[in-house]
Amino acid sequence: MVRPDSAGRTGGAEATRRTRGGATRAGSRRAPRTLRTERFAPYVLVAPAVLIIVTLRLWPLLLGVNFSFTGDGENNGTAVGFANYVELLQDPLFQGALRNVGLLVLLLPVAVAIPGLLATFIYLRVPGHRLFRSVYFFPAVLSPVIVGAIYNLLLAFDGPLNDLLGRAGLGPVDWLGDPGVAMFAVVGVHIWATFGMALVVFLAGFATLNPSLLDAARVDGATLPQVIWHVIIPGLSRTIQFVFVTTMIGMLTSMFGLLYVMTAGGPEGSTYLPEYYIWHEQGQMNRPALASAASTVLFFIMLIVGLAQMSVLRRSGRED
C-alpha cells in the first residue's frame, strides 16, 4: 500500500518529467531555427556591402567592357568587335604606356623597401623617431598638384638641384625634358609623395611582430641586416604582400595629377601611363570607346600583376 505522501511525490516527479520532456522537445524544435538564423546572419550583414560593390563597381565595369567593343565618331554605338584593342596595340603612345608599366614593376621593390626600412628604424626607436614619424607622413597629405608644382621648380633645368650639381662638377640634367630621364623623375616624386601611407601600414604590421624574436636575435649577436632578413621580413610577410599590391595599384591609378602637372605626358610621350592615355583619348580626342578599351586593358594589367605578386610573395614566404 502506497502512502499518500509517497503518491504525491511520485505524481510530482512524473509531472516534472513530463514538463522537462516537453521543454526538451520545444528546445529541440527551436534549435534548428536558431542554427538557421546563425547560418544566414553573415550573409545578411555582408549583403549591403556586396550590393554597393556590384552596383557601383562591377556593373559599371561590365558596361565599360561592353562599350569597348563599339565604335567612336560615325560608328558610335555600332559593334566593331576587337577593332579598338587592335588599334591600341598599334598606337605608339599606348605601347609607350605599357613599357612604362613594366618600368613601374621593376621599380616597385624600391617603392616598398623605402617605407619598410624607415618603419623599421622607427620601430627600433632610433634617436628622433617621433619627429621622423611626423615628417615622413607629411608628404602624403599634400595634393599631387602642389607636389608637382614644387618639383617643377626644384627639377627645372635652371633650378636649385642642377645648380648644386653644377657646383659639384656633375653638370646639369634635364630632369623633365629628357625622354630617358623624365619617367624616372616622376616616379621618384610619386614615391616621395606617397610612401607615408605605406609607412603607416608597416608600423601597424610591426605591432603584430613578436618582440621576443628580436630579443633572441640580439642575444645571438645578429646584425641589423640579419635581423631584417631573417626576423622582420618573415614576420611581416602578410603586410609586405598588402603593401606590394596597394603600391602597384597606386602607381597605375594615382599618378595622373603628377603627370599632368610635371610633364603633361611628354617629352615625346615618354611619360604616358595607361590612366593618362585614357584621359587623353576621352577628354582630348573624344574617343570614349577607345578609352573604355584602354580602361579594360588597365584593369586586366592590375589583376594579373597583383595576382602574380601575391603568388611570388607567398611562395617565397613558404620557402623561408
Mean pLDDT: 84
By CATH, the architecture of the largest domain is named Orthogonal Bundle
CATH superfamily descriptor of the largest domain: MetI-like
* Contiguous uncertain segments of 5+ residues: 6-10
Overall structural class, as computed from helix and strand content, comes to mainly alpha
Protein name: Sugar ABC transporter permease
Keywords: Cell membrane, Membrane, Transmembrane, Transmembrane helix, Transport
InterPro entries: ABC_transporter_permease (IPR051393), MetI-like (IPR000515), MetI-like_sf (IPR035906)
Subcellular location: Cell membrane
Offer a few descriptive terms.
0% strand; mainly alpha; 77% helix; 2 domains; MetI-like fold; flat; 320 residues
Write a structural description.
α2 crosses α13 and α12 runs antiparallel to α13. The protein contains 13 helices and no strands. The protein folds into two domains: 67 residues; 238 residues, MetI-like (MetI-like fold). By secondary structure, it is mainly α.
Annotate the secondary structure layout.
Layout: H1 4-67, H2 83-90, H3 92-123, H4 129-137, H5 144-154, H6 160-167, H7 182-206, H8 211-219, H9 224-235, H10 237-253, H11 256-262, H12 274-284, H13 288-319
Helix pairs in contact: 1-13, 2-13, 3-4, 3-7, 3-10, 5-11, 7-10, 10-13, 12-13
